[in-house]
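During the second half of the funding period, the structural biology subgroup turned its attention to how the target accommodates small molecules. The most pressing case was zinc ion, which had performed well in the primary screen but for which no bound structure existed. We therefore specified the complex as follows and requested a full 3D prediction, including the ligand pose.
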Amino acid sequence: MMQVDLHGGFGEKGRTSVALRSANSHILLDVGIKVGASGREYYPAIDKGIETIDALLLSHAHEDHVGALSWFLAQGYSGPIYMTEETRDEAPATLAHYADAAQLKQFPFPRDRVELFRPGDTLTIGDFTIRTGRSGHVVGGVWFAVGNGQETVVYAGDVLPDSKVFVMDPLPSCDLLILDASYGADPVSGGARADAIATWIAEHPKGCLLPTPLFGRSLELLAIMPKRFAIHASMRQALASQIAATDALYPKAVERLKHQLASAIDWHDGEPLPDCPLLADDGMGTAGPSATLIPLADASNYPVLLTGHLPASSPGDLLYRAGRAGWIRMPTHPTLSGNMDIWHRSGEPPVLGHSCTPYMLDDLTLHIPSLRIDARTGQSLTLREGKIA
Ligand SMILES: [Zn+2]
């Protein structure tokens, strides 16, 4: 028997966090924050039982999976924290942006409590055997398959099955599948979106701005840039180090990306906007060079194309809703075919979907009938003999 506590990210996007409990063990998977929420809603709904948690495991360093780490330490968590090397290296920057400043000062990123593992490793924590695999979502990102000898729960975290750049390892069969439902039942594949973005760029030959997060999606965009394009100079090192993580990438993509980065023009603040596509982080204009570049481009009638998730009222969202920017989403999460495929391969078990609204779950259940559309943050479910109640 396993108990599954939905602490965040169910019926909502953000603050992703799930606990699994067996007779003698208790682990927490991810501890994110919710962009756009305030007060208690910003953090996972973990109100008791923190002292019995044996380990925290982090899937990757995005804010909706790791941003509540300082808050969680402030609540009294004192155990080990498992993550990959890349997550360890990126998490402090995420906390700097998204943690409460006073809390972060008192509870900084606890390097001495980090237990490193590599994607593909199997961990043993109490009763649990935990398999891991590459997520395809970001370098160093992983999924978790947690077994207690009777049942197996797969927590996909954020995954990307149809990337041309990042490798995703197949998920094992399981008794409960917690899917990345960020895009609901979006039927348009990654390849088709990439083609649409390339076409949009070709239609704006005098230059355009493409805000993008420093990690993950930037490599997908880099791969489809035309011959002549620019990057904000501050991105070069982070892009190079991601391309150097060849374990996470398809060999063919590595060659293409190295060539693309070598030929990219470095653009510096203060220079005139270039007459070619310009990549600058972050993806929504809340931080990084794009926080100043988006208003500058808008004031200069320089076209802007947004390609990712836009939290309500972020600068990118406001610009798009005012009709002054294009938006073509480059998938960094599964589209419909990807999630259908994951579900079939894992033996069509009961499914929970994280990181989307109830309305999007309704769409997805038309294709995945074993999806529970009523799962919400704050609920606790029991998995027993392959049945979830
Ligand atoms: Zn993510």
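Two results from this model are relevant to the next phase. The mean pLDDT is 95. The CA atoms of residues 62 and 338 lie 21 Å apart.
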